[in-house]
Amino acid sequence: MFPSRRLRVRRDSLWLFWLLAGWAVALLLLLLPADVFAQGLLVNVEVSHRVRLPRPVPPGAVIPPTASSYKIKELDVHAKLVDQAAQVQVSQSFVNTGSVQMEVCFMFPLPYDGAIDQLTLLVDGKEYPARLLAKDEARRTYESIVRKNRDPALLEWIGTGMFQTSVFPVPPGAERKVTLRYSQLCRKNFNLTDFLFPLSTAKYTSHPVEKLNIEVAIESGGEIKNVYSPTHAIELKRDSHRATAVYKAQNVTPDSDFRLLFDIDSGKLGASVVSFRPQSDEDGYFLLLASPEIKREAAERPKKTVVFVVDRSGSMSGAKIEQAQGALRFVLNNLREGDLFNVIAYDSAVESFRPELQKFDDETRKAALGFVEGIYAGGSTNLDGALKSALAQLQDSSRPSYVLFLTDGLPTTGEKNEMKIVANAVAANRVHARLAAFGVGYDVNSRLLDKLARENSGQSEYVRPDENIEDRVSRLYNKIEAPVMTDVEIKFALDEAPVEAGEPVNRLYPKQVYDLFEGDQLVLVGRYKRAGAAKVTVSGSVGGKQQSFDFPAELAAASHDETFAFVEKLWAIRRVGEIIDELDLKGQNDELVKELVELSTRHGIMTPYTSFLADENVQLREVAQNATTARKRLGQLEEAAGQGGFEQRDYKGRLQSAKLPVPASAPAADYSSGFAYRQAAGRRTNLGGRPASGPGLGAVGADEAKKSEPADASVRSIGTKSFYRRGQRWVDSTVTEAQEKQLKRIKQFSDEYFQLAEQQAGKLSQYLVFDEELLVNLDGQAYLIEPAE
């Protein structure tokens, strides 16, 4: 049995494929009859039967036990990294849920070259020997498996070596715990140490992994600055010389390897730049990571000003006002000596804790907590008056200043005009304070909050009715609690470029970089026209004094593999978020709509306005026609309030701040009213470490649910490419009309097919894993891969 996540799956023989470890080690779990092996080598695999995935079973039907099946109960990965050296222990518990005994053999594909030391495999405490197969021998093994199973899944590992162990029995119903221990030397690129755990082969299991836990502990003699995963939304705990990255999930089918990048720097600020340029005649992409030093002395931390503005109108009664009070208490209990603060509560009237800013100490903290206890809900909503009152109190531009503004409704008294409220706030904000706007519930004017945040150097956050206000406010405050460098500017300069050549980089996202906070990390993406050695200058205010730091960078002239291909996808996601923001706040623009369609098509980013691209009848190359359709759908942005407006602005914000190269969940096909979209294939996507709420990000009516299906059914993203189902064919979005006219036909599983896979090993072979007709662009040549008969 060789289960797969593809839409059409073949199961020939008894295969269980799973990855268990890596620097260069992945675990392939093969369930085969014992006579398949001769002297420890895989030789012939006779096809005894073919089983397709079962059809849905009607309610009440009795399902007999499958002759051969299994499930993974737990996958637990612990790695300890000391500089570049890693020690890894992986434990997997799996259960034979079938009715026959399984003979199991473990094989370990090596994702990339490198020496592995002290490889040990234990099954329920008993050690099993393993031997290394060289690349050529491993390639023959991979090909043999692919040919016999008529399944191209293993092609992505052709070109690597593998470890292989002997077989052992697993009786029906039995559970086995397999433990793998090894040590490795991690690769280092662009000054970043790269730890890889090949997790993606777990996608070939027949059931989701019930419990997945990955924990990577980093230790270093130098100061750890940036820690970043381009593949998973990690939780990070750290100090200057230690960091622990944790990823946990339940009932998941992993579809990508786990990667963790980190760098070491002894200065007050650490920065690293990664670049990726797939085509030398096109602009490249770069990712900049920047982190300040951790745990500065309290005396060195800049003093800040925080004003909390809380809505106490009648709609805030009950749990909302109680949670808002809890958020206020959290902020007040976490201010620092020397900070300035105030609390403003508003309904139709505006009331301040004190007429002017207060210096934080134990006495003022207790008094402010008393004021918070006396806040009760009632009255209308004077947004304009509350904002002007809060911003008027800020006078010192040398201090970092933050306004935390919370509302659950629309302006109902005082100034009600959206544009005038924004203009009044900008005029009153003389010290360039950062405004964080919290929209609570679906009744807020989300477009107004986005405009307020954008024009006041801040951000907007949206709290759903079932979310806790206190939790969301405290998370943001924890981020901004200790500013280290404010008013940050980042500049690139090529070492050998003339001054008149101008900036070598463009389209940086986020558009404006403001402050760096202790324990926080800036993730900046952009594009570049000219390659070469460069200098990055990060400057800003540190403790009221201007400081700047220089870092070397290399903007690649051409990338020969896809190690850092995720940078292109991450840039595209953020660019799509910025385009939607521009269209939302400034009105429609034909050029931006066209660019939105082109980016969505190329990168498979199914926004609510371009989800029609997943329709098999839509012609991908009809850019003008598709832009017209997108323009009509963008009319939904006119909805400023209500759940539709709320969902659109929240979705847009998650794209703009994405830290993973994973697009947001796929939207439904059409909307007769309001805004709604469904999760793609039930998957919850993490953007910037924040899970999308489910089961959907909007209310989908019965009619919409019938006519919409997950975009995953007709759109697949692999590496940097996106494929669209058109009839019985999967089409690479980058194949041009001219390339298609000059395509080369190759029969699946033919000698020519395997030669192509070997030529593309380590770079593009991952795109050959379809088991249906495939039109793909490989190095500028279009290939039509035809299924074997």
E-strand count: 41
Q: Which structural class should the secondary elements be placed in?
A: alpha+beta
Describe the largest sheet.
Answer: 8 strands, mixed
Q: How many helices?
A: 14
Can you give the helix content as a percent range? 10-25%
Please state the overall shape, judged from the principal axes of the Cα atoms.
Answer: globular
Please tell me how large the radius of gyration is.
28 Å
Rounded mean pLDDT score: 81
DSSP strand content: 25-35%
Report the span from N to C terminus: 21 Å
Kindly describe this structure.
With 789 residues, this protein is an alpha+beta fold. Helix content is 21%, strand content 33%. The strands form 9 sheets. Strands 8-7-11-5-4-14-17-16 form an 8-stranded mixed β-sheet, with no helix packed on it. Strands 21, 22, 23, 24, 25, 26 and 27 form a 7-stranded mixed β-sheet that branches. Strand 32 and strand 33 (545-555) form a beta hairpin. Helix 4 (383-392) packs parallel to helix 5 (418-428) and helix 9 crosses helix 10 (623-633).
